[in-house]
Design a protein that fits this description.
Blueprint lengths: L3 H13 L2 H14 L9 E7 L6 E7 L2 E6 L11 E5 L6 E6 L7 E7 L2 E6 L4 E6 L5 E6 L6 E4 L4 E4 L4 E5 L6 E6 L1 E2 L2 E2 L3 E7 L2 E6 L4 E6 L5 E6 L1 H10 L6 E7 L4 E6 L4 E6 L3
Length: about 270
Amino acid sequence: MKKIIPFLYCILVACTNSPKQEAPAQKENERIKESEKIIPYAVVRSIPHDTTSFTEGLLIHDGKLFESTGHTDSYPLSRSLFGIVNQNTGKIDVKAEIDKNRYFGEGIAFLKNKVYQLTDTTRIGFIYDARTYKPLGEFHYAGDGWALTTNGTYLIMSNGSGTLYYRDPVTFDPVKKLMVTADNVPVDSLNELELIHGYIYANKWLTNHILKIDTTSGRVVGKLDLSMLSEDAASRYPGSAEMNGIAYDSTLNKIYVTGKLWPTIYEIKFDN
């Protein structure tokens, strides 16, 4: 019997679990779940964040952590500005500020010795010298302005929809549109952006998710679920709002995330 049982087992396996029968379904199942793939992460450390900062953008430039913020009447202490975050105190060393009664400051990006700053619904952006932060000019666009990142050639912009716009930094005209989908379904509410190793990572507004987007196809190929960080921030400061902000230090391979009015910026680590 010891010699017969393995033989019978092989026959049963071959008859009931044929690779040719299951492989297509298995591949289809893997494709369907691609956008639901949870990317594991670890918290490396936390640094202070100003709880009056209504975060709209976060990035690393020349080794420094920059943040841009917006003003809303719901939070009277909020301002529309950008500057360098003091990692000991969380306070922002302000480099430029716009009239909060006229403009709601949104995301920023550095490109070719300039800083570009979006505003929310006023369809106007501002350009500054990247060394002196003196104003250089303005640019205009249709619709809302939410967030910016760059691939070194173009500015990449979100406007709260599921379409990302690659824009010429001189004319600000769109040169490419990237429609973002999850399992062939359009995604909306894309917010703060960061480009990491050829993938765009985007905060999805009003969620604790950061989506990993294939820049060739626009497909969501995974996501970070940062609910635990959101809960931790709320436990430290009950006034914490939604998660927003992701910054990548390409020199040191460090990634930072935070949220609006959060008391903490978290340095996290994950395979990217």
